[in-house]
């Protein structure tokens, strides 16, 4: 029985060329699987037809926008997930969802091999293959760019030789990956880390230096899930989509960083994530209002580890599942409204209200009506300081 190869298909040159190339290499049939993750760009039906024209026996397009927002972006928001305290996991979040649908297609069509377009020096090869190992370990994996040293020049020559219906003349200087949660740009002149980014790099965000009126928005959360904007009930996808437009128009969410890749190298990346940055800002502030101190302190370390696991391709790992349970429990009181003022590249919290608030005006105020018993503070401070005081006295006695 010949192989059936399930290909993660983007519609671009590399994965289009991979269809006939994989068929030649394996002697089998290729099933192309493309996902709409809110990335915009070409019509998904055009992408589906292109895969068939390139020789795929089946071409599947999945509208996964709502699923991506609900099951991947919202958990990242609840974890305040920022890798290295800056990057909101734009690519790391999408890969496990793609893997889920690749496995579903393999089961539906009797696939024995899965293929992706990743190189051997990036993070995504790990994310795809670690996910596949967790969900369907029997599947074999072929990565043409990595396993067969498949370069862009070879891909162009092969496309011309086969007369494939794809545009191969234009070559973008950048490598771009985008979805609902944000946009990642690398390579080209950015590989010299002294070069500053230019305005042409950006698509999701306007220049924050340009004059414009500020935009004020009220984000409503229920159990850590965004459920409304300015009092309008919306799905997570609709909220993220609208916030991408509104925060993006204010130039919010631009990130230029050198990050630590999983494979051991440092890489310069430029990101745009307007909705992600604005919503994480709002969510973190609501947690400040509603989550008890020690739980909040511990959750910050959990959030960091959660983001590292997702970045490292371990979405389906036991530890990630355990941390999911902790984070879900910590969200039970994270309900209320946060008012954001978005302007000049920044999202600034200007108001907070919650029925689950732990903030007490009567305890916090210094004016008349203060209910905090300051007479208790003297003894508290003495007892709190006692271990350090005793240690200092010992050290002095010992010279």
Automatic annotation (TrEMBL):
It comes from the Bacteria. Residues 174-390 form the Arginosuccinate synthase C-terminal domain. Pathway: Amino-acid biosynthesis; L-arginine biosynthesis; L-arginine from L-ornithine and carbamoyl phosphate: step 2/3. InterPro entries: Arginosuc_syn_C, Arginosuc_syn_N, Arginosuc_synth, Arginosuc_synth_CS, Arginosuc_synth_type_1_subfam, AS_cat/multimer_dom_body, Rossmann-like_a/b/a_fold. The keyword Nucleotide-binding applies. L-citrulline binds at residues 87, 123, 127, 175, 259, 271. This is Argininosuccinate synthase.
């Amino acid at each position: 029985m010949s192989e059936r190869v399930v290909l993660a298909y983007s519609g671009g040159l590399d994965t289009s060329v991979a269809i006939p190339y994989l068929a030649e290499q394996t002697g089998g049939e290729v099933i192309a699987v493309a996902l709409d993750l809110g990335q915009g760009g070409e019509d998904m039906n055009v992408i589906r037809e292109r895969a068939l024209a390139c020789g795929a026996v089946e071409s599947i397009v999945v509208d996964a926008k709502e699923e991506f927002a609900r099951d991947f972006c919202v958990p990242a928001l609840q974890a305040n997930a920022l890798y290295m305290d800056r990057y909101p996991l734009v690519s790391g979040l999408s890969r496990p969802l793609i893997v889920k649908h690749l496995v579903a297609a393999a089961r539906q069509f009797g696939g024995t091999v899965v293929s992706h377009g990743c190189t051997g020096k990036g993070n995504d090869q790990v994310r795809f293959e670690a996910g596949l190992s967790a969900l369907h370990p029997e599947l074999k994996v072929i990565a043409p760019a990595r396993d067969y040293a498949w370069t862009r020049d070879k891909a162009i020559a092969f496309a011309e030789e086969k007369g494939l219906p794809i545009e191969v003349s234009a070559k973008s200087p950048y490598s771009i990956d985008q979805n609902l949660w944000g946009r990642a740009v690398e390579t080209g002149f950015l590989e010299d880390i002294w070069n500053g980014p230019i305005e042409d790099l950006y698509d999701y965000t306007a220049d924050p230096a340009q004059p414009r009126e500020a935009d004020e928005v009220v984000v409503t959360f229920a159990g850590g899930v965004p459920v409304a904007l300015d009092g309008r009930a919306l799905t997570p996808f609709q909220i993220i989509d609208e916030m991408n437009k509104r925060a993006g128009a204010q130039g919010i969410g631009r990130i230029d960083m050198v990050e630590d890749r999983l494979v051991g190298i440092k890489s310069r990346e430029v990101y745009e994530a307007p909705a992600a940055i604005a919503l994480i800002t709002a969510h973190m502030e609501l947690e400040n209002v509603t989550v008890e101190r020690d739980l909040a302190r511990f959750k910050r370390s959990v959030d960091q580890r959660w983001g590292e696991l997702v970045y490292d391709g371990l979405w389906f790992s036991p530890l990630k599942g355990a941390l999911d349970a902790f984070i879900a429990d910590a969200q039970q009181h994270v309900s209320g409204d946060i008012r954001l003022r978005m302007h000049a590249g920044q999202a600034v919290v200007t108001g907070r209200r919650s029925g689950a608030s732990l903030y007490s005006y009567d305890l916090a105020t210094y004016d008349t009506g203060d209910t905090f018993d300051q007479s208790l503070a003297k003894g508290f401070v003495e007892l709190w300081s006692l271990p350090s005081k005793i240690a200092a006295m010992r050290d002095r006695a010992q010279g």
